[in-house]
Structures are given as structure tokens and as C-alpha cells.
Amino acid sequence: MKYIRYAILAAIAVVLISVALANRQIVELALLPEGLAEIAGMNFSVSLPLYMVIFAGIGLGLLIGFLWEWRREHKHRVEMRRQSREAHKLKREVKKLKGEKHGQDDVLALLD
């Protein structure tokens, strides 16, 4: 099983490296379109290789997806913690009641 995982990771690495080598050309990323940048007086742009833009987009999408899912599952985690605390409390109560019951009446303890 470990070898299959390594083979899959190696295949993904080969694909990512081939994408990076095929997209080495420099692209310019601008914050605003040219006309709007002139009006606003903000002409912020950066030049990066295309593969960095692609990988940054994939990484940002994964991060947003993970955060979105973590936030969506928050109510389930809260409910699970509440139920766990309640179950622990009930187990302690049952243990306490069994101890009291067996200590008070030997005839009832024999019937159980």
C-alpha cells in the first residue's frame, strides 16, 4: 500500500513539474484593468511566471475550500462534544448509582 501511495505522489510530481516547465513564460498580473487603474491612480501590477500563478490559484482554492468546510462542520463538532460530555456524565452517574445500590440492600443486589 505504501508503494502505491509513493507511485501516485510521483505521478502527481511529474505532472506538476511538466506543467511548470511548459508554462515558464512571464505574465503580468494587474490589480485593476488599465482604464480603471488610470482613473483610480493605482497601477499595481506584478510579473510572475505563469506556473506560479496557476499553482497559487490552486493553493488558494484549496485553502478556501478547507476553511469553508471546517466552518460548515463546526455545528457537528459542537454537538459531538456536547453528547460526549453528556455520555461521560451519565456513565459516572450509573457507576455511582450501582455503588449505592449494592451497598444498601444485599437482597436486591442478589436479584440483579
From TrEMBL:
One of its GO terms (cellular component) is plasma membrane. Residues 45-94 form the Lipopolysaccharide assembly protein A domain. It comes from the Bacteria. Keywords: Cell membrane, Membrane, Transmembrane, Transmembrane helix. The chain crosses the membrane at residues 46-68. The keyword Transmembrane applies. This is DUF1049 domain-containing protein.
